[in-house]
Design a protein that fits this description.
One of its GO terms (cellular component) is membrane. The chain has 30 helices and 19 strands. The chain has 985 residues and is of the alpha/beta class.
Length: 985
């Protein structure tokens, strides 16, 4: 539906058009286009109905002691912005009107007490609070792409890559790049899927792993990943210092060492910087980087381009130099781009090397493909640099997938091209002996490559020193391990203590001063984290709970499983001993967290898996409420029909079809119940036969569920027993599904109103959600495809149940072609634009595609009298007025004869005529709005108002009849004070 087609008309237009042409609401009406000076097209004015067009109000005198005055005084009031009190025009639906958006606060992670179902006469106040404005936020480029690129593109490329091509040959080097790149690419896909499954707090991969695999696994892998980032910072610092000292030997404070070269054509020995120089300069550089990190995200974003741009320029100069190189120019051993050289370097030539990496038959290091994997893999790590800073990103769901995958593909492409160019550029001897071949061939002079190496490593060190403290602070903020409380930080604050601790670890590794000892440690910790991310996505994708709706669609559980397997294989290829040590460290942390850590329920994937098991699931989940991420609808389908069914059909056929629509891919359980009137001892065998028949019918309808038959004196008592006792542990039904009793007036079934209202009240007391289906006969089966829209009239905060039901409907073939429209009912003095923006942002965070409209209700005066109109809704309204008036007169006459208070349904009632009429106007306006904008909708969902206290059940049925009048297919939904959707992953 185009927004431009929706426009309210003034009262005179409605009166004239409806009286003169007799056109029904929403049929044949032409809407004028919205012009520039109009309000937002999504803001609808329910101005088509005005009290002046309605008949006179009900006038029935009651006894003085009927309590009408006290009832009037107890009407709920709301405090407006100016502090004055006003009556709520949506009080029929309860106090938690969507106008107060935001009851959405409880879905954003804030802990607020669950409100009870308010009734007439209760005073309720809601305190609204705008979200806190946090510090500077980064976008995709500066927040994810640049940090990832700086971390990935580091020292390995400059000083080890050409050597790897010489040792492994072009063929195996391409295989090496593809093997390691596939690992990080698959991990990036898994990371993108999890990161787009909801709002993401600080902590990056730790947050994702912990929320998917549980706090114990999350903390153990998170701490290992923190150590890996801290140690990686030392690796990058040492690489920068070593390059600097080689470029400027005179800067050395201590005397360096010379390495003699054997069995090569190089005559002169190769100088190496002193270990003490590496330590001194490394400590100084680490302290400087620490001060930059202390400046916060704004300072880091300013400094990062200064490190990255010279790096990209140096790579460009390397490619220019390769293209311009000729035989023995700019150095001996350079052949220029030669096909013969390419052929000579295609195969591998693994040799022994000395400590400087120069081939030496007497060397202590023996190289093979596995060793090359361990040496090269740090060149593809760094894909988590953006997610590590998730708390500093504007939009994690957009920035993390785009930035991470772009950086991964960019660097992988660069590595593949470089393998081909280096392999065709120089002889194998030159590749193996010139550790800085990139500087040798760079145009116009080698110094630019030295600058590129230094700045690339310093940039990577900066990103490691930025991400690691935030990761540690996120672990501490989750309050799982009390020993980490020192590193907690407030929202939007910089983790200064964690930064100092990270710098301390980095300095300790710098003092070691050996890159070859540090590299395997970093690699193992990174691979352990990548394995956790892949396993998290694998588990979530395999379970496919209703909360699993990532925006990133290009993922599959098989890809995540392959990615996890690749990570484990690479760990053992590099070093089985380091693999065992890293796994043992993670296991020790896991054991410590399980003993000393505090319990945390994050709705992790293991809990969702337990939920799909039987007895073990119940024992694992306990008796507490299920987390919104693991919430599954368990419908209690009330099969007792309001009327008769064909023989041998124990349940309405379309009820089973509707129950299947409430499940995602058929997962979940339904409980089909029916009530057999009579004495249990006499009807026990009949109940068993009926239960068997119902169970057979459920299997025939291919609906996962169980059948139960309850024997009770009457329907009300039977249902009250069912709603209290049905289910076991967390497998208790949470939604009651039943058919709307459309036949009650047609067949004059006077006992239905009291029974129907009693069932709804029982559900409210038992804290069960309610879904009432009107138009069940027209509900489509699995082969009847629907088109159009699924329209939601979202009036009260229901924990997101109505939104989730609409999403579940879209997963069915019958409704997959439909689109969702959300109509938010607001009062006339609410800020419609702000409400619309909030709802749009809320739906975006929930990964739900829907068009949002705000319907504003104008004030109406129930004292204004007017003549009847020839409108279908108004005719239904006048009929309801007439029947209620007649019912009240009968009650009054009976009370006068028996000299008792007004009685209905066996209890005393207090009738506030003004309130009754207001409720009728509310349902009339809502029905008219539905008919106007949703007449052609595939299905309409609307909030179900609770039965008002002290009103006869007959009145409530009149309200409901007026609400559903002429709507062919309608779902009335009421939540149960529990959130069933959540913003966070």
């Amino acid at each position: 539906m185009d927004n431009g087609e929706i426009e309210g008309t003034d009262d005179n237009e409605f009166a004239s058009s409806s009286s003169s042409k007799g056109v029904g609401l929403g049929v044949g009406r032409k809407y004028r286009p919205v012009v520039a000076h109009d309000t937002d097209r999504a803001v609808l004015e329910m101005s088509s109905l005005d009290p002046s067009s309605f008949p006179k109000k009900i006038k029935v005198s009651t006894q003085p002691n009927s309590g009408s005055d006290s009832s009037e005084r107890s009407l709920p009031t709301h405090v407006g912005a100016n502090g004055s009190q006003r009556e709520s025009k949506l009080e029929l639906f309860g106090f938690d009107s969507l106008v107060n958006i935001l009851g959405l606060k409880s879905m954003t992670g804030e802990q607020i007490p669950a409100p009870s179902s308010p009734r007439d006469g209760e005073d309720v106040s809601i305190t609204l609070e705008r979200p806190k404005i946090t510090g500077v936020k980064s976008g995709t480029m500066m927040g994810v792409f640049v940090p990832c690129l700086q971390n990935i593109l580091g020292i390995i490329y400059y000083i080890r890559f050409s050597w790897i091509v010489g040792m492994g040959g072009i063929g195996e080097s391409l295989l090496l790049v593809a093997f390691c790149g596939a690992c990080t690419f698959l991990t990036s896909i898994s990371l993108s899927a999890i990161a787009t499954n909801g709002a993401m707090k600080g902590g990056g991969p730790y947050y994702l792993i912990g929320r998917a695999l549980g706090p114990e696994v999350g903390v153990s892998i998170g701490l290992c990943f923190f150590l890996g980032n801290a140690v990686a910072g030392a690796l990058y610092v040492l690489g920068a210092v070593e390059t600097f000292l080689k470029a400027v030997p005179s800067a050395g404070i201590f005397r360096g060492t010379l390495t003699n070269v054997n069995a090569t054509g190089v005559a002169e020995p190769i100088p190496s910087p002193s270990l003490h120089d590496l330590q001194v300069y490394g400590i100084v550089v680490t302290i400087i980087i620490c001060f930059i990190v202390f400046g916060g995200v704004k300072m880091i974003n300013r400094v990062a381009p200064a490190f990255l741009i010279p790096v990209l320029l140096s790579i460009f100069c390397i490619f220019i130099g390769i293209a311009a190189a000729k035989k023995d120019h700019p150095a001996s051993g350079i052949t220029g781009l030669s096909l013969q050289t390419f052929k000579d370097n295609w195969s591998s030539d693994y040799q022994r090397t000395n400590s400087a990496g120069i081939p030496d038959p007497a060397g202590k290091t023996d190289w093979n493909y596995n060793a090359l994997v361990g040496l090269f893999f740090p060149a593809v790590t760094g894909i988590m640099a953006g997610s590590n800073r998730s708390s500093s990103l504007k939009d994690t769901q957009r920035s993390i997938p785009i930035g991470t995958l772009a950086a991964t593909l960019t660097t992988s492409g660069l590595y593949i091209v470089s393998v081909l160019l280096f392999g065709a550029l120089a002889t194998r001897e030159k590749l193996l002996t010139d550790r800085l071949l990139t500087a040798t061939v760079a145009w116009p002079f080698p110094l630019i490559v030295y600058v590129g190496i230094i700045l690339s490593t310093l940039g990577a060190a900066l990103q490691s020193m930025t991400g690691a403290p935030r990761l540690l602070a996120a672990i501490a903020n989750d309050d799982i391990l009390p020993v980490l409380n020192y590193f907690k930080v407030a929202d939007g604050s910089e983790p200064h203590i964690a930064t100092l601790f990270t710098a301390f670890i980095c300095i300790g590794c710098v003092i070691i001063g050996n890159l070859d000892l540090i590299t395997p440690t970093v690699t193992m910790f990174f691979l352990l984290c990548y394995t956790g991310v892949n396993l998290s996505c694998f588990l979530l994708d395999l379970l496919d709970a209703p909360s699993w709706r990532p925006r990133w669609k290009f993922h599959h559980w098989s890809l995540s499983l392959i990615g996890a397997s690749l990570c484990i294989v690479i760990m053992f290829l590099i070093s089985w001993s380091f693999t065992v040590v890293s796994l043992a460290l993670a296991s020790l942390i896991y054991y410590y967290v399980s003993i000393k850590g505090k319990a945390g329920d994050w709705g992790d994937g293991f809990k969702s898996a337990y939920f799909q098991l039987a007895l073990r699931s119940l024992r694992s989940l306990g008796a507490n409420q299920v987390h919104p991420k693991n919430w599954y609808p368990i419908p209690l389908v009330f099969c007792r029909p309001w009327g008769k069914l064909p023989e041998n059909v124990p349940c309405h056929p379309k009820l089973a079809d509707f129950a299947n629509c409430m499940k995602k891919k058929g997962r979940g359980m339904s409980i089909f119940v029916s009530i057999l009137d009579g004495d249990y001892y006499e009807c026990a065998e009949d109940a068993k036969a009926a239960c068997k028949q119902l169970s057979t019918y459920i299997d025939y309808k291919r609906c996962e569920g169980v059948a139960e038959i309850v024997v009770a004196p009457n329907m009300s008592d039977g249902f009250r027993g069912i709603v209290q006792t049905m289910g076991l542990g967390n497998l208790k039904p949470n939604i009651v599904v039943m058919r709307y009793p459309e036949i009650w007036r047609r067949e004059n079934l006077t006992e239905i109103p009291a029974t129907f209202v009693g069932i709804i009240n029982d559900c409210i007391v038992a804290n069960k959600a309610v879904v009432i289906v009107k138009g069940l006969d027209e509900w489509p089966n699995e082969y009847q495809r629907q088109y159009g829209t699924i329209d939601l009239y979202w009036i009260v905060r229901d924990g997101g149940l109505m939104l989730l039901l609409s999403q579940l409907l879209l997963t069915k073939e019958s409704f997959e072609s439909c689109k969702i429209q959300v109509f938010c009912i607001a009062e006339e003095d609410s800020d419609a634009e702000e409400l619309k923006a909030d709802v749009k942002k809320f739906l975006y965070d929930l990964r739900m595609q829907a068009e949002v409209f705000v319907v504003s209700m104008k004030t109406w005066d129930i004292h204004v009298e007017g003549g009847p109109q020839h409108d279908e809704s108004v005719e239904a309204f006048t009929g309801a007025q007439r029947r209620i008036s007649s019912y009240l007169l009968g009650m009054k006459e009976k009370a006068d004869r028996e000299k008792t208070p007004l009685m209905a349904d066996g209890k005393t009632v207090v009738v506030n005529e003004q309130q009754v009429e207001k409720f009728l106007y509310t349902t009339l306006k809502l029905n008219s709005t539905i008919l106007r904008y949703s007449r052609m909708a595939a299905v309409v969902l609307v909030s179900l108002p609770p039965p008002p206290v002290n009103h006869p059940a007959y009145f409530y049925m009149e309200y409901m009849d007026l609400l559903v009048e002429n709507v062919p297919r309608l779902l009335m939904v009421r939540g149960y004070r529990r959130d069933v959707v959540t913003l966070f992953t």
